[in-house]
Amino acid sequence: MAQDASFVQHDKQGEVHVLRLANPPVNTLRTEIRAGLLDGLNAAKAAGAKAVVLIGTGRMYSAGAEMTEFGKPRVAPSLTEVFDAIEGYPGIVVSAIHGSALGGGLELALACHARVAAPTAQVGLPEVKRGFVPGAGGTQRLPRMIGPEEAAKIIVSGDPIPAAKALKLGVIDAIIEGDLEAGAVAWAKANIGKTFTLARNRTDKIEGQDPAAYDAVIAGLLKRSRGQESPKGCAEAVRASFTMPFDKGLEKERELFQSLVSGEQSKALRHIFFGEREVLRIPGQPADAKSLPIERLVVIGGGTMGGGIAMSAANNGVPVTIVETSEEALQKGLARCHANWERTVSTGRLSQADYEKRKALLTGSTDFEGTVAKADLVIEAVFENMDVKKEVFARLDKAARPGVPLASNTSTLSIDEIASATSRPELVVGMHFFSPANVMRLLENVRGAKSSPAVIATATEFGKRIGKLPVLVGNCDGFVGNRMTGKRGPQVEKLLLEGCLPADIDKVMEGYGMAMGPLAVGDLAGLDIGAAVRKARGTVAPVADAIVALGRFGQKTGKGWYMYDEKRTRMPDPEVERIILDVAEKMQVRRRKIEPQEILERLMLPMVNEGSRILEEGVAYRPIDIDVIFVNGFGWPAWRGGPMFWADTQGLKNVRDKLAHYAEVTGDANLKPTALIEKLAAEGGSFASMGA
Ligand code: NAI
Description:
The chain is an alpha/beta fold. It has an eight-stranded mixed sheet, with helices on both faces. Strands 1-2-3-4-6-9 form a six-stranded mixed sheet, sandwiched between helices.
């Protein structure tokens, strides 16, 4: 392929030539970039350049491979061909890194003779997070430069490291202050004629590596990724760096790459990776819909959620004031935020100086009207009660300046009804955070019937600004996530009656990859909350109701579905078993052994069916919106791809048949397959094909 000057700019500065990667925004190494680099290197060589500097234009050096090229026929030249040209260059090739060098981007830099970086740069190999191993020599070159154990830490975690650490470890050779390109050219010039041993030829850091010591480090690293294939693959690839010659190691890496990249876990991870970008593209939003400027946030209510929301704002540099009803409640709320930050300081993850900054951004007041008058955006997080919310919104409407958006953090109530208490329903929107709100990334923004494009743009942009992943959903009871998990409840009850104990159910879901099973989550959230919802809705759950009736509200009372010791270790409780057996006997349910597969299906299928209903209603725009919600707000492992992705892996015909079967045998009308599932099953379609 001919060199395309628009992708790689070639600039001759005497004996140093500069090749600038220009594939905005993140310089992925698409075919044109690879071809441009190869042509540029050949041209530099022909011109007799003694040094070549590779540098990125725009925000960064390079974010790595172009993932949209995955799974398509490979187009030459490959990265390996580019690396061969670098390693065979009769002079030195130096990478100059600013922003990030990630994945294939870092692998490109590792193939060079030397690397320099801006002080703010970071480097990393995040491939593990997409479900595969670095596939262009990263697992072989990095260990040769910094040793297998340090390399494994970087490659197995996938987390980037800052320039200073990269320098200390020996990933880069120098940090350049000031103009990076000028500095890198000067650095290259000064080093012309010096010998640099290419990573592939180095043995100093791998010689004498004790395999047992390596395996011990790996065992520690793999603890956090149970069930996942790619971290294991990364560890195995790095192991090859000191047990095999370089070229054999590369072959091993390629083998692992190929088998992982075509596997289901990698597909799931990439589905979520692209999905997290897709959800920000809101169908029907006019192109000119602009976010309103927000300088000061006011949060009404400094309880569990209000405090967490306020912390998220302060953590991201936004001045925020909490309004409470009494000085006592206010001080309690602020103290909880401070204590939370202090814990982070004590673990070393937050500096004292940053803590002081955050603390200064967070203020409190009991003057409702006076504070709200200064707000650019209000987020309400008072008690979950419609009368209370309407009263608060009527007051907000009077106190807030005209044009200021009013958001509610309600988790179940109708945004339209809340909006009806104001004279500005077009400026009312739901912003549903998840607990703990300063930690959880998901933000379900709820579009009311009258919400304007501007208020939706504001909720989206502001959510991003305070570190959240906003997913826009429609207005309905429970919105998307809670509505879907709610539909699982009746099956949990039935499973308990028919033969399971709480640990049987949680074990299956935790085995699937959830951080916690549904009953353990119930104990954490408080079983009284679900009981209150059932009471309000006039529904019953004989087993759960019997548990709550004994004052077993979960962790906060030391007992719930499990019993807990002082360290909150959960243990099965014979009393719970007795209650379950009692209720089953009273209801004349014959207990039997239930296989894990049945447990899994009966917990997944109600969610999938409800998810399809949510799609039919347009409450979620796309199946991917639902999957992103579960991964970011409900502890669903990204490498499983979410509930709708799960349904596709089962095949929708199979899903349809199983739903119909369980609807019949369990008498749960919610399990009757929806029209959408019937249609997709009949066409041989999938949720993924729907999005296309
Ligand atoms: P909470 O009971 O911890 O906090 C509510 C706070 O609001 C209290 O401190 C109360 O003093 C204050 N408050 C009540 N009326 C007020 C008024 N007129 N002006 C100022 N402050 C007032 O409740 P929590 O858990 O924080 O929930 C708040 C909202 O967030 C509810 O709508 C809830 O459904 C929603 N939510 C809760 C989640 C959770 O996991 N707890 C998750 C997502 C949403």
